């Protein structure tokens, strides 16, 4: 609800319903991913099962903040033990990273929230040089080994099915892609997935939400479901990651991935 005063100032009053449950609850950046996690809970899974399923799913429907190429942290509260366990799967830099690959631009700030010293071409933020060794898959695998109850493949399957359908281009997707269009356009892989002739895709009012192909994400997820997470670090997926990284000038090696 928006109320306009005579001075044209906007006064916002926002209300959201409270959700209550005696059997568990899940929250996610995206309603689709949250529903998948809730379905896991309804099917008898525990909180970690739901978190794993939602994590892989949100990597499909909101890939700008989550994905197989990222990392993170997980806090697990063990109610019977009244104890919290932490899984740290934060991303790490390649072992052979060379600071000379990131020359500073004298007298300039990065222009972002933190105002770091600017790096030439913002290569620490965009493109191949900005890619760290990914740890999300390993983190989910460790959480599954320690705390989950459902089969690994069953928790990845919903995300693979989502990826088959493609990225839903709703208003929020258009907003996020528009904000990043200039940088997405710099690389043909990101441009092919997210842009139409250099512009953010849009949804026509009154028509079904369009979807964009996510490339090989669905087949990658299904391979992880079938052969396990280590393929991402020591198998066929790892080989492709290293070849692609090297082609773009990134120093990530097979040894970096195997060490995760």
What does the model show?
The protein is of the alpha+beta class and 260 residues long. It has a domain at 100-125. 41% of the residues lie in helices and 13% in strands. It contains 10 helices and 8 strands. It has helices at residues 31-42, 47-61, 136-147, 152-165, 171-184, 188-194, 217-227, 231-234, 236-247, 254-258, and strands at residues 2-4, 10-12, 72-78, 83-89, 104-109, 117-119, 167-168, 211-212. The strands form 4 sheets. Strands 1-2 form a two-stranded antiparallel ribbon. It has a two-stranded antiparallel ribbon with strand order 3-4. The mean pLDDT is 93.
Q: Which short descriptors sum up this protein?
A:
alpha+beta, two-stranded antiparallel ribbon, 10 helices, 8 strands
Strand order of the largest sheet: 1-2
Query: So what's the oligomer here?
Result: single chain
Number of beta strands = 8
What structural class results from the helix and strand content?
Answer: alpha+beta
Characterize the largest beta sheet: strand count, sense, and whether it forms a barrel: 2 strands, antiparallel
Low-confidence stretches: none
Strand content: 5-15%
Helicity level? 40-55%
Specify the overall morphology: globular
| Helix-strand topology string | EEHHEEEEHHEHHEHHHH
Average residue pLDDT: 93
State the helix count. Answer: 10
Radius of gyration: 21 Å
Distance between the termini: 49 Å
